[in-house]
Amino acid sequence: MSEGRDSMKMLIQGQLEDAQGADVIRVANPATGDAVDTVPKGTREDARRAIDAAADAFKVWSEKPSIERSRVLLKTAELVRASVEDLGATLTMEQGKPLGEAKGEISSFANTCEYYAGLIGRERGAHNPFSTGEGFFIVTKRPLGVVGAILPWNFPVSLMGWKVAPGLAAGNTFVVKPASTTPITDIKVGSLMVKAGLTPGAVNVVTGPGAVVGEELLDNPKVAKIAFTGETGTGKRIMEGSAKSIKRLTLELGGSDPMIVCDDADIELAVEGAAWGRFRNCGQSCTSVKRLFLFESIAEQFVKMFAEKVRTIRIGNGMEKSTHMGPVHTAEQREKVESMVEDAENRGAKELVRGGRPAGNELSHGNFLSPVVLTGVDYDSKIAKEECFGPALPIFVVKDLDEALERANDTLYGLGSSVWTKDLEKAYHAAERIQAGTTWVNSPPIARAEVPFGGFKQSGFGRELGLEGLDHYYETKSIQVLEYSKGKKWAFPIN
Ligand code: NAD
Fold first, then answer.
1. Distances (CA, A) of 443 to 157, 271, 407
2. Which terminus of the chain has a smaller tally of CB atoms within 10 A, N or C?
3. DSSP state letter for 494
4. Rounded CA gap, 363 and 361, in Å?
């Protein structure tokens, strides 16, 4: 389509630009179906321009003293915080999440910038003498070069921060490819980075289809690394495509987090945690409570309290203050969730809390779906086996921790998990046995800039955030310095 008006542009070499062609992508508000704006439908040629700009900027940015890179990240954080109202509202309109959540996401982008701005100045190298005394060696860290950051739609801004903040701190430059349904806030954030003093071209934001712009990032030999967040299926394609030029990779993929509530848990707290952990962002978080395991001795009490709690969740347009939960991001996503619920019901599950599309005029144009809670769910149901990315939660009853752990690990995924108990020894025992990148104890999933985040199994590899998040943006360089004065010679025959 071509709407040809003064729409949002993409960011290449510090300038807002149109695509080569006239085609645009219409970005729709999931709560109303109305257009928020349009963005250019980028082509491979546009992606190449951005990659070239990032490669040029790398020569400048990577040579800057770390204190200057740090300063730009701090200034970015300041500008982003000052624009939190506008950025938050834009994010709500294009993604659907309630304004409070959206503003929290914007602040978390600023936190990540501040965290890595602080970390970069504390980096230490290593220097060691050779054991033989012939000389010494130095281990340094070098940035990788141009990074392709490919983003999903569920946390478009914070996940951009998880990539660009450590990557820029380490001296890399970026071509960011947002999801086609949530590109606008990322473009605005990228523009603020330029305003903060970033070398033009060090962060480019190119909008367009994954199969075009994303594939160019995979194909282009100038791209040294792909930092990808998205579905496990797409992650497999990213691995294949990156193999051609042996790109470095971090993959943050899908999850099906178990939440285990033991018989000695604080039930009230766990009920709150389960509702927040499942229905925040309308259930569309990679790490969120996706399978709930209850010890049988507390199951009846928990289920009753949980059902009451979930019924209080108010659905609506995220721009309204009273809204607890916004719409599902797309109509297609809503259908996927509905079909998983239907599949579970066909296998005998019952709706403890009835979901469905809410009636009412003001909601009928959006992709709204009421929270669904299912009991009596067969372990072979899709909702138990696959990632359910929406407001539906299956509950399972288990006799003890051993059964809970066995069931919890019976999944291809291994992203997050949580254990709820007052016995910290038990919690530690469980956490060590759950095959997941993070186990929260008595808390729903909340990522923090200081703590590494990532998956086991098919939830991906590599870590974002924390010290490890920085490591993934470096090559390790070893320099061995021999002292010639000690008369070392190389000659054949070797003996
Ligand atoms: P998706 O895999 O459909 O898309 C992610 C991005 O990949 C988009 O920008 C898309 O355009 C691009 N893409 C698609 N095909 C491509 C190709 N052939 N080459 C290059 N790029 C391509 O994911 P989504 O639906 O946007 O996001 C939801 C998924 O993301 C869920 O599975 C969720 O669990 C996962 N996720 C994981 C984490 C984590 O940290 N592990 C965080 C958030 C979301």
1. 23, 11, 20
2. C
3. P
4. 5
Cα end-to-end distance, the chain, whole Å: 73
Distance CA 466, CA 468 (A): 5
Secondary structure (3-state) at 365: coil
Residue 179 CA: nearest ligand 1 atom is 9
Q: How do 223-229 and 248-252 pair as beta strands?
A: parallel
pLDDT for 487: 66
Rounded distance between C-alpha atoms, residue 348 and residue 260, angstroms? 22
What is residue 131's predicted lDDT score, i.e. its pLDDT? Answer: 66
Q: What's the pTM value of the predicted model, to 2 decimals?
A: 0.96
Give the model confidence (pLDDT) of 393-422 as tens digits.
999 999 999 999 999 999 999 999 999 999
Rounded Cα–Cα distance for residues 161 and 157 (Å): 6
Dihedral (CA of 102, 37, 333, 43) sign: negative
Homologous superfamily in CATH for domain 10-253+459-478: Aldehyde Dehydrogenase; Chain A, domain 1 (3.40.605.10)
What CA–CA distance (Å, rounded) separates 192 from 110? Answer: 12
Based on the residue annotation, tell me whether 252 is a catalytic residue of this protein. Answer: yes
Map out the domains of the chain as residue ranges: 10-253+459-478, 258-441
Assess whether 78 carries a catalytic annotation. Answer: no
CB 455 near ligand 1, within 6 Å: yes
Q: Which residue has the higher pLDDT, 110 or 361?
A: 110
Using CA positions, which residue lies closest to atom 44 of ligand 1? 286
